[in-house]
Amino acid sequence: DTAVSQTPKYLVTQMGNDKSIKCEQNLGHDTMYWYKQDSKKFLKIMFSYNNKELIINETVPNRFSPKSPDKAHLNLHINSLELGDSAVYFCASSPRARLGEQYFGPGTRLTVT
Amino acid sequence: GENVEQHPSTLSVQEGDSAVIKCTYSDSASNYFPWYKQELGKGPQLIIDIRSNVGEKKDQRIAVTLNKTAKHFSLHITETQPEDSAVYFCAATSDSGYSTLTFGKGTMLLVSP
After folding, report:
1. Residue B88 — pLDDT band, cuts 50, 70, 90?
2. Which residue in the set B44, B89, B98 is minimally distant from A55, CB to CB?
C-alpha cells in the first residue's frame, strides 16, 4: 500500500565511506526527486528525474550521484561522505502534468561521524 | 529564481483557536501554491493547494487564500486540534515545464490542549 518508500530509514556511517539510499514509488508517476532537509528543517531540492532522465541538478557536489534504473526507482549514491552530509534525505514523486503535487517518502536520516 | 518567505517560524495556539501562516513569493510566473504538513519523523504531506486563477479554497477546517497582486498566500486552520501540531511548509512553482518547487522555511505549529 506504500506510495513512496525509501530504504534504509536510518544510516549511520563514518566520514569517507560510500553509501546508497534507495527509493521506489508505486504511484505510476513520471517524475522523481531527491531533497535534503537540514537540522533547521529547510527543504532543498537536489535532483529531479523525469522518465529516468536527469532534469534538474541543483549544484549538488558530484560526490552525489543519482541513478534511475526505471521510472519507478530513483536511488542516491554518495561517495566520500562528509560531516556536512548529515541530514534527512527525502525522495518524492509527482505526476508529469502536476509537478507541484509531490508525494514524499518517509525519509532517510543520515548521520556521518 | 523563485524566493518564498514564510512567517511565523513558530506558532503556539490553544486548542480551538485559529492559526494563520503567511507566505510571500517573488516570481510572478509562479501559478501553483501547495501547502505541506510534516509530522515528526515523517515526510511532508500535501494538505491543500491553490492555483493562481483562484482566490480562496477551503477543505473542512483548512483554507488557503491567494493575493496575486501582492504575491501573498496564507494558510488558515480553524478549530485547531492537538493533532494539527506539525511543521507546515508553503511552496510555489510554475506548474509547467520543469520548474522546481520552492519551499518556505517552515512554521512549527504547536496546539496545546
Report:
1. very high
2. B98
CB B30 within 8 A of CB B94: yes
Backbone CA torsion sign across B81, B24, B50, A42: negative
CA distance A66 to A48: 9
CA A39 – CA A88 distance, rounded (Å): 8
Q: Which residue has cell 536510518?
A: A10
* Most B CBs within 10 Å, among A10, A24, A43, to test the B interface: A43
- Report angle CA B64, B10, B4 to the nearest 5 degrees: 55
Report whether pLDDT(B97) > 70. Answer: no
Beta bridge partners of B112: B14
Say how far apart CA A64 and CA A51 lie, in whole Å: 20
The residue of A41, A55, A58, A90 whose CB has the most chain B CBs within 10 angstroms, and thus the best one to mutate to test that interface, is: A41
Q: How sure is the predictor about B75, in pLDDT bands with cuts at 50, 70 and 90? A: very high
* Contact: B38, A41; criterion CB under 8 Å: yes
pLDDT over 90, % of chain B: 86
Find the length of chain A.
Answer: 113
| Residue in the structure block whose three cell numbers are 527525502 | A90
E strand residue ranges, chain B: 4-7, 10-14, 19-25, 32-38, 45-51, 56-59, 62-67, 72-77, 86-92, 102-103, 107-112
